[in-house]
Known about the structure:
By secondary structure, this protein is of the alpha+beta class. The protein has one domain (2-122, 156-164): Glutaredoxin (3-Layer(aba) Sandwich). It is 48% helix and 15% strand. It has helices at residues 2-7, 11-18, 25-31, 36-43, 60-75, 90-94, 125-133, 140-154, 157-164, and strands at 9-10, 49-55, 79-85, 106-110, 116-120. The two termini are 20 Å apart.
Amino acid sequence: MEDRFRRAQTFEEFLRGAQESGHPWREFYDRARVPEAFLLRGRGLKASWHLLALAEGWCGDGANSLPPLARLAEAVPGLELRVLPRDENPDLMDGHLTDGNRSIPVVMVLDEDFREVGWWGPRPAPLQEIFLREIRQLPQPERYPRLRAWYAKDGGRTVLEEIFALIPESA
């Protein structure tokens, strides 16, 4: 997995290409903030951690979820985020399906030896529950505004909390 991680794009490299999709990735990244409690938690990690995301520029959930993780990785020594295109990595994607679907983003949490300890995606758990119960049934044009409203209110906190939950406490 280390080889895949090293060949993956940095978030900044991914961001340049993602902007061409029409989703406001740069705007979301510019607004992303990491609450101090998460910065302290990240700076308290005793080992290096790697976050390997599968995403595509057209993915609205990725545009909302990955910027807070990128900001966290920028602020925490020993935490690094890289991004691989989902469609160019079907073997990795097929190992991280959501209900049998290739839903993204997916974030794999890798330890300092690049072993996967867990993965997250494609949405924060509370939003995924709302999506399955209510939003999925809406006509396509009505879905994204509902998702975006949830993400805007949450400010990335749930994504950060769920990613930290995958890192062993002893880390």
